[in-house]
Amino acid sequence: MSTENTTDTRQVVEGKQKMTPSEAFVETLVANGVTDMFGIMGSAFMDAMDIFAPAGIRLVPVVHEQGAAHMADGYARVSGRHGTVIGQNGPGISNCVTGIAAAYWAHSPVVIVTPEAGTNGIGLGGFQECHQLPMFQEFTKYQGHVTHPARMAEYTGRCFDRAMSEMGPTQLNIPRDYFYGEIECEIPKPAR
22-181 has which CATH code? Predict the structure, then answer.
């Protein structure tokens, strides 16, 4: 993992384009300079994870999600860039609370991506379902909940902008079925 201030030569698509929500998510990560993400691979975001490497994003694997959240915090403190953490919905995400709380008190620009149960199963006690937004409301500067696949890039960009402008963690909550399909969107440019 390099924290050197090198020029990012990755290209982000411009203008309104047809793509999958996973591609919109990853393109927005690239637009915000994400090169490293900390977490444990999980089925909730598998479609997006498959395109991390081709987009120049390295998923740094951990043994426990709490470690991933602390690593994202440390990365943000040392590099001055966003620290990004992702985990499996439910118990994986709940393991990140302590690390995100530490980032909050240190004013670290950490973005926690929290894939959640699919929209058809929310409220039915589905696989690893839990209320993920309330878990982090005390320790985030902003919580974005993707309400439609077409808004993936918008909410992703907003979380990255708010983490930097407010110097603290933000949460991007995404129903697992919103990574799929086809949308038309424009990748937002970072505000800073």
Answer: 3.40.50.970
